[in-house]
Amino acid sequence: MHCWKTINVKKEYGFNRLFTFAVLAGMGVFTIFYVLLNFFYTTPLSDRYFFFFFLGILSVYPLHKMFHFLPLIGSRKCLKFILRKQLGMLPGISLHVKEPVAKTRFLLALLAPFILLNTLVILLSALFPAYIHYFAILLAYHCSLCLTDLVYVRHLLRTPKHALIEETETGFEILVPQAIS
């Protein structure tokens, strides 16, 4: 195996640019989703159950990280969880893979939170139209969290089909088999 390419989105784009893109994406998702749902549902909005909304906001990040883990369950011996502070006070959860993982499995791990949580929020907004404003905020927040994952997916879709992905200190390395001569 040899390294075909190393991808480090945080180094390539920088924290400030990624954060700005995430905020803009979240605002765009909120605006489009909220307007679209208001177009289809004329139910008066309610601010009851704000406590559950608050719990939902707090649980989005841990659920997001847990859904990254689901496709990698078979590789759990090579997974490492790291808890650290981000922005000085907020807890951050990192999931590191110690061994190379097949590209398709890694892509599935990156996309699982986006697909599962967003589908859940959209279904709940259809079931409870009086709380679409809460669900629009949850969806926007989660889409903002997913932005970095989606940028990695965009990079990985351009890699060789049978590549393996390995996480290192410098980012994700795309490993491909050496050609036999």
Please characterize this protein's 3D structure.
This protein has one domain (2-176). The chain is elongated, with a radius of gyration of 19 Å. The protein starts with a strand and ends in a 5-residue tail after the last strand. The mean pLDDT is 86. Helix content is 56%, strand content 19%. β2 and β3 form a beta hairpin. α3 (50-69) runs antiparallel to α4. It is an alpha+beta fold. The longest helix is centred in the N-terminal third of the chain and has 26 residues, at 15-40.
Keywords:
single chain, alpha+beta, four-stranded antiparallel sheet, two-stranded antiparallel ribbon, 5 helices, DUF3267, membrane, transmembrane, DUF3267 domain-containing protein
Domains, number: 1
Mean pLDDT: 86
The termini sit apart by 14 Å
Strand order within the widest beta sheet: 1-6-5-4
**Oligomer status:** single chain
- Biggest pleated sheet: 4 strands, antiparallel
Number of helices: 5
Gyration radius from CA atoms, angstroms: 19 Å
| Number of beta strands | 6
List unreliable stretches of 5+ residues: none
Envelope shape = elongated
Fraction in helix? 55-70%
Which strand-content bin applies to the residues?
15-25%
Q: Which class best fits the helix and strand makeup?
A: alpha+beta
Secondary-structure element series: EHHHEEEHHEE
